Structures are given as structure tokens and as C-alpha cells.
Input
Amino acid sequence: IMGKVLNAKGEAMTGAAIFIKGTATGTIADMEGNYRIAAKPGDVLTFHFKRFKTQEITVGLSSTINVTLSK
Output
């Protein structure tokens, strides 16, 4: 799975943490907010960034998941 993590202004969330819920498997968004993680359909991805609401998304058939985090 790959995608981009942005804020409500469309700015990259550099350093956002992305984990597969219930595991230690995770990654960090790069300078452009891009991430890549080995997840399969049915896995739940959690997106964290300090002072922003954590968001959870269940992986489906798409290989791209873009996320906008809000405060």
C-alpha cells in the first residue's frame, strides 16, 4: 500500500506515523508526505501525527490510500 498524508490545507504531513493496527509494522511519511507499507486487504491502517486526530482506514482492493488528517 502506498499513499500520501496531508493536512486540511493540502500540506504534506512529514513524519506522520502509519501502522498496521495490532502489530508493530509501521512506517513514517517522507518529506512530501508519501508512505509505503506492506499491508493486505482487511488490515486496518492507523495514521498518527501529534495534535491531529488519529485516523483508521481498512485496506481494501486499492493499492493507494491517501489520507487528510484534521485537528
Q: What stands out?
A: The chain has a mean pLDDT of 97. Residues 41 and 59 are 5 Å apart (CA to CA).
